[in-house]
Specification:
The longest helix has 35 residues. Helix content is 42%, strand content 12%. Helix 6 crosses helix 8. The protein has a seven-stranded mixed beta sheet, with helices on both faces. Strands 8-9-11-10 form a four-stranded antiparallel beta sheet. The structure holds pyridoxal-5'-phosphate (PLP). Pyridoxal-5'-phosphate binds next to helix 6.
C-alpha cells in the first residue's frame, strides 16, 4: 500500500500475513528450542562486520528483513529464553507474555498519566494488587512498575533521601547521607547512590556471615559509628535472594535497626521475592512488611518478558514528594481522583507493562504460577543432591531458592576452563561468581520450559567436561571451607 506521502505502508492484510509468519517462527522456536546453541560461537564485532554500515536509503520488504533476522541476528543471540540457560538468573518470556507485548506495541499507549492511558493505569493498579495479595502484603503497600530493579532502587534511595532530609528537593543532596548495603548486595544499589550524588564513599558494605547474610550486629555498629561522627544514616538495603548466592538477609532484625534509628529500609527481592507466591516459601518475605519499599522483578522469575520490575511502598507520598512536579501540560481534570504513575519517578513515558502481568497471571492463575515456581525449586534441590553425592564437586552456598553454587574440587583455573567449555558446547550456559576468593559456578534454574532432563543432562555434561579438565590438574586443592 502507498500512503498519502507516497511512502509504502503495510496493509492490514499484509500485516496479518507477516505477523502469522513471525508467530509461526516463534512457535517453531519453542518447539525446537533445544536444537539451538544457548550461547553463539561468535567473536566481538562479527555480526557488525556482516551487516551494512549505513541504513538503507529506500525501504525493504518485510520478508527480507525477517530473513536477515533468522540468518544473521538470531544465530548471534545468547538465548535467554532457552530451557538450558542457567546463567545469571534464568528468566522466562512465556507465550501469554509475548502476546501481551505484541498488543501493547500495537496500541502503543504511553502510561504516563491516567488520562493518557486509563486502562494501562488501572490494569497496573489491579495486577499489582493481585500480586500483593499473592505475596500476603497488606493493603498499605502501593505498587509501581518500573523497567528494572536498578531504576527502582534508585527511586527508592531517592525516596529515602526525601524521607530523611525533606529539604533535599530544594537544596540538593547534602554531604554525609549514608546508604548501607551488604558485601553481597547487587551493585545496582551502589550505582543508584552514586547517581543520586551520595558519593561512593558514603556507601557502607556491611560484612556477611558464613551463609552470605548481612550481619545485623555489624550494621548497628556502622550506624552508631556514622552517627557519632555526624553522618546521617539514610537507607539500608536488605536482600531477599542476593545475586551471587541468593542469600536471604535477616530482614526482621534489620527492620528493628531501621525502626530504632529512623532509617529507610529497602528490601531487594528482585529475584527471591517471586518465590513468596508459593505458600511454603512465604517466610522468605518475613519482616518485609516492615520495609519502606520492596522490589521484585516479574521479568526475573514470574514468567514475564523483560522488562518489568515491581516496587511496593508503604510511603507513596514520599515517592511523589521526591519526584512529582505537575507540569502544566500534564494536568488533567481527573488529577485528584486518579493515579498518575509518572509522579512516582523520573520517567514520564512508560510502557504498558501491566498488560503482560495481566495476561500471565490470568493464563496461569495462582496455582499455575505456584506449580512453575515449585518445579524450579525442586529441580534446584535435586541438583544440589547430585552435587553433594559427587565427591569431585563441592556445594559452595546454601540453596534457599533455585540457584546452585558449586565448584569442582580443583583449582580456580580448572573451574574457569570447565565453565568456558560448558558454555562453548552450546548445550548449556552457566555463569560464575567469586566466594571466599574462589571461582564458583552458578547454575540458575527458572525458565518455564526447563525439565528434569535438562538439569540431569547438563549435570552429566559438567561431569564429563570436569573429568577431562581435571586430568590436566595437579593434586586437588583443598575445599572452599
Ligand atoms: N537485585 C538483584 C538481587 C539482582 O540479582 C539484580 C539483577 O540480577 C538486580 C537487583 C538488578 O536487576 P535489573 O536488571 O532489573 O536492574
Amino acid at each position: 500500500m502507498t500512503g498519502a506521502s507516497g511512502i509504502r505502508q503495510m496493509t492490514p492484510a499484509e500485516f496479518a500475513d507477516a505477523s502469522r509468519e513471525h508467530s509461526e517462527w516463534i512457535a517453531r522456536y519453542f518447539e525446537h528450542v533445544r536444537e539451538f546453541p544457548v550461547v553463539p560461537q561468535i567473536e566481538p564485532g562479527e555480526l557488525l562486520s556482516r551487516l551494512p554500515r549505513s541504513a538503507p536509503e529506500t525501504g525493504e520488504p518485510i520478508e527480507s528483513i525477517f530473513a536477515d533476522f533468522r540468518s544473521a541476528v538470531f544465530p548471534a543471540l545468547t538465548l535467554w529464553n532457552h530451557p538450558r540457560f542457567f546463567a545469571y538468573f534464568s528468566v522466562s518470556s512465556t507465550p501469554p507474555s509475548i502476546l501481551a507485548d505484541l498488543l501493547a506495541a500495537a496500541v502503543n499507549v504511553n502510561a504516563m498519566l491516567w488520562k493518557s492511558a486509563p486502562a494501562a493505569t488501572e490494569l497496573e493498579q489491579l495486577t499489582l494488587s493481585w500480586l500483593r495479595q499473592w505475596l500476603h502484603l497488606n493493603e498499605s503497600f502501593f505498587g509501581i512498575i518500573y523497567d528494572t530493579a536498578s531504576i527502582g532502587v534508585m527511586q527508592a534511595i531517592g525516596a529515602a533521601r526525601e524521607f530523611i532530609d525533606p529539604e533535599c528537593r530544594l537544596k540538593g543532596t547534602r554531604p554525609g547521607l549514608i546508604v548501607y548495603v551488604s558485601e553481597q548486595t547487587h551493585s545496582s544499589s551502589e550505582k543508584a547512590a552514586i547517581t543520586l550524588g551520595f558519593g561512593q564513599e558514603n556507601v557502607r558494605k556491611i560484612p556477611v556471615d558464613s551463609r552470605f547474610r548481612m550481619r545485623p550486629d555489624l550494621l548497628r555498629q556502622a550506624i552508631d559509628a556514622d552517627r557519632a561522627s555526624g553522618k546521617r544514616p539514610c537507607c539500608i538495603v536488605a536482600s531477599v535472594g542476593s545475586t551471587s548466592t541468593t542469600a536471604i538477609d535477616p530482614v526482621p532484625e534489620i527492620a528493628d535497626i531501621a525502626e530504632q534509628y529512623g532509617v529507610w529500609l529497602h528490601v531487594d527481592a528482585a529475584y527471591g521475592g517471586s518465590a513468596a507466591v508459593v505458600p511454603e516459601m512465604r517466610r522468605v518475605l518475613d519482616g518485609a512488611e516492615r520495609a519502606h519499599s520492596l522490589i521484585l522483578n516479574p521479568h526475573k522469575w514470574l514468567y514475564v518478558s523483560i522488562d518489568c520490575s515491581v516496587l511496593y511502598t508503604r510511603f507513596p507520598e514520599v515517592f511523589r514528594r521526591a519526584s512529582a512536579l505537575g507540569a502544566e501540560y500534564l494536568r488533567t481534570p481527573e488529577d485528584d481522583r486518579v493515579v498518575n504513575y509518572n509522579d512516582y519517578g523520573v520517567q514520564l513515558g512508560r510502557r504498558f507493562r501491566a498488560l503482560k502481568l495481566w495476561y500471565v497471571f490470568r493464563y496461569y492463575g495462582r496455582e499455575g504460577v505456584i506449580a512453575l515456581l515449585r518445579e524450579a525449586l525442586r529441580l534446584a534441590q535435586m541438583l544440589k543432591s547430585l552435587i553433594e553425592a559427587d565427591g569431585n564437586f563441592e556445594l559452595c552456598a546454601p540453596v534457599p531458592f533455585s540457584l546452585v553454587c558449586f565448584r569442582h574440587r580443583s583449582s580456580d583455573k580448572a573451574n574457569q576452563q570447565l565453565l568456558a567449555e560448558i558454555n562453548a558446547s552450546g548445550r548449556a550456559f552457566l555463569s560464575h561468581t567469586i566466594l571466599y576468593g574462589r571461582f564458583v559456578l552458578r547454575f540458575a534454574i527458572g525458565n518455564f520450559q526447563t525439565t528434569e532432563e535438562d538439569v540431569r543432562e547438563t549435570w552429566e555434561l559438567i561431569r564429563q567436561i570436569a573429568n577431562r579438565v581435571a586430568l590436566d590438574e595437579q593434586p586437588a586443592t583443598t575445599a572452599i571451607r
